[in-house]
Amino acid sequence: MGIENLLFGFQVALHPYNLLLAVIGVTLGTIIGVLPGLGGANGVAILLPLTFSMPPTSAIILLTSLYWGALFGGAITSILFNIPGEPWSVATTFDGYPLARQGRGGQALTAAFSSSFVGALFAVILITLFAPLLAEIALKFGPPEFFAIQLLTFSSFIGLGGGSPLKSLVSILIGFILAAVGLDIVTGQLRMTFGLTDLMKGFDFIVAVIGLFGIGEILLSMEEGLAFKGASARINPRVVWETWRELPRYWRTFVRSCFIGFWMGFKPGGATPASFMSYAFAKRFSKHPERFGKGELEGVVAPETAAHAAGGASLLPMITLGIPGSPTAAVMLGGLIIWGLQPGPMLFKEKPDFVWGLIASMYTGNVIGVAMVLAFVPLFAAILRVPFAILTPLIVAVCALGAYSVNSRMIDVWYMLIFGVIGYVFKKLDYPLAPLVLALVLGDLAENALRQSLIMSHGSLLILLERPISGAITAVALFFFALPIITSWWRRFRGVSLPTASPRET
Amino acid sequence: MRAADLTTALILIAGGALVIWDSLRIGIGWSTDGPRSGFFPFWLAVLLIGAALGIIARTLSQKNGKPFVTREQLRPVLDVLWPATACVLLMHWLGLYLSSALYMAFYMRRFGHYSWLVAAGVSVVFAVSVFLIFELWFLVPMPKGPVEAWMGY
C-alpha cells in the first residue's frame, strides 16, 4: 500500500512543471542559505506570497526544495568561509574550514553534500514508512491529546534546548501572547487591541519570522563586522569520485548520525543539538580523536548527516500532526493554511496527491539538490564575494518586500523592523527565537485545544492526565519541563557545576 | 549585559501587567460556553511575569561585566537601522520600488563609497527586476507611488 502511494506521489513530483519548480527552489534555496541573514525559514517566508496562485502541491514542492537548497547552502559558507549560514552548520565549520584551508575544500564540500544527501534520504525513507502510521494514530486524537502534544513540543525547548530554561519559557509565552492579540474567533471578542484597529488582525508569524531571523540576523552580523575571507575550492569529477570512494569507510558514522539526527529532529529545535551531538560521538568513537578540529573528513560527515536527517525529520510531525518541528516547517504549515488545506492527520485521507507528492518530492528535491550544488559550487560561493555594502541593503529590501506581500499591509513592514530589533536584542541576551515563532504559529490551535479539553472536563485540567494517550504524553512533557530543575539539583548533589553549552537556535 | 537583562525583564513584566489588565477587563473566568476570552492570555501573562522575576533574580545573583554593546559595535547596526526606517517611512508616499531603490543607492554611496553611477545602476536594476517578478509575473501588488502612477500602473 505504501509503495503504491509513493509511486503515485512520484507521478506528481516528476511532472515537468514540478521538476522545474524543484530546480528553481533548490537554486534559490542555496543562494538564500549562502547569504548571511537569510535562512531557510526566511526564504520560505519571503517566497510564500508568490505561491498563492499555484496549485498547493506545486507550491509545497517549491518550498521544500528551497528548504533543501538552504540546508546545502549552509554547508558551503561553513566550509569555505568559516561562517555558519545556519546554526546547525556550526559543527561543520570545526573540520570543514581547516580542510578548505589545506586546499582540500573540494573533498570537504563533496563529503558535506553527500552526507547531507544520505541523512536527508534516511529521514525521507523513515517518513515514507511512518507518516501514514502516525497519521492513522493521530486520527483518533481528541483535543486533550493535541494539547498534550503541544505541551511536549514546548517542553522539549525548555528541557532539551540548552541555554536558560527561564528565557526559553519567556520566548514561548511571548509567542502565545502575540498569537492571542486581535479577534478571538471563538467568542468574537477583541483582545489586547487597546482600541487600535491595526492590532485587530493580530501579528502574522511570517512577518515575525522575516523580522526576527532576517533583519535581526543582519543587524547581528553588522555588529560582528561582515568580513568574508573565503578559501577557494575546486570541485571536479575526479575530486568527487575520490571522495566518494573514501566515504564508505565512515559507514558507522553515517548510521549513527542518521539515527541521532532523526531522533533529535522530529522533536522541535533538534537539528542544532543533533549536529553537535553527532560530532561529539564521531570524535569519541574515532581511532584518532586528536585529528578532529584540524581537518578530519569524518568531522564534516557526522554533523552534516545528522543535521539533514533532523531537517527531514522535522517535516514528519508537520504533515502527520499539523505541528511543525522547526521554524521553517512552521512557515510551510502557515502556507498550507493559506492554500486552503487543513494541516493534520486528515490530509492523508483528503489530499493524498498533496501528501504523497510532497513526500516523493523530498526524494527528487534531494537528488536535484546534490547534483546542482556539486556542479555549481563556485557560482554559489561567489555570492559571498559581493561587497557587504550591496548585500546588506539588498537583504533588508528583500525582507521588506516579503513582509509587505504577506497581507499587503504597510503596518507589517513596520512590525518587521520592530521584530528585527527584538530579534537582535533577544539573540544578544540568549533568548531563543525558535520557540517564540512556533508559539506564535501554534497559539490559536493550542488555545482551542485547551478550551475544548476544558469544556469536555467542565474546567478540570486533570483531563490531560486522565486519558491514557494524552496522560502519557503530558507526563513526558512535565518531565521535560522539570528537567532543568532536576539536573541542577543533581549537579548540586554531585557537587559539580558544569557550564552548559547554548547553541544558537533558529 | 546585566543592565540590558534587567531592563528586558522589566519591560516583560510591564507587558505582562498590561495583558493581565486587558484580560481581567474581558473576563478570565467561565461563561456558559467555556472559558472566557481572557482566560488563556491571563495565565500566560502570569507565567510570563513569574519567569521574568526569575530572570531578574538570577541576573542579580550573577556577575557579568561584559557590556551589552559597545559604541563601535552599535554604529554599523544603527547605520543599517535608521536608513531602513526612513525607507519604510518613505514607502507610504513613494511606494516600495522607489523608496527601496533610494535606500539601496544611499547605503551603497554612503557606506560602500560607490560612485553615483554604480549605486544608481544596481538599485534601478533591483527595483525593475522586483517589479517584473512580483507585479507582472506573480501578480503580487506592491505599494506604489506617484512615479508608478505616472507610468500608468
The greatest interface here is: A-B, 60 and 67 residues
Apparent shape of chain A: globular
Mean pLDDT metric of chain B: 87
**Average pLDDT metric of chain A:** 83
Q: Can you write the helix and strand succession of chain A as a string?
A: HHHHHHHEEHHHHHHHHHHHHHH
Enumerate how many helices of chain B there are, as a single number.
5
Classify the secondary structure makeup of chain A into a structural class: mainly alpha
Termini Cα gap of chain A: 37 Å
Task: Give a written overview of the molecule.
Chain A has helices spanning 2-13, 16-34, 40-47, 56-81, 90-138, 143-160, 165-180, 205-223, 237-246, 251-265, 271-285, 298-313, 315-321, 327-338, 346-350, 352-382, 388-407, 410-428, 434-456, 463-466, 468-494, and strands spanning 182-183, 190-191. Chain A is mainly α and 506 residues long. Chain A has one domain. A two-stranded antiparallel sheet of chain A has the order 1-2. In chain A, a hairpin with a 6-residue loop joins strand 1 and strand 2 (190-191). In chain A, helix 6 (143-160) packs parallel to helix 21 (468-494) and helix 8 packs across helix 18 (410-428). Chain B is mainly alpha-helical and 153 residues long. Chain B folds into two domains: 2-61; 71-150, no CATH class. Chain B has five helices and two strands; from the N terminus they run H-E-E-H-H-H-H. Chain B has a two-stranded antiparallel sheet. In chain B, strand 1 (30-31) and strand 2 form a beta hairpin. The longest helix of chain B has 42 residues, at 71-112. The chains are: A mainly alpha (506), B mainly alpha (153). At the A-B interface, helix 7, helix 8, helix 17, helix 18 and helix 19 of A face helix 1, strand 2, helix 2, helix 3 and helix 4 of B.
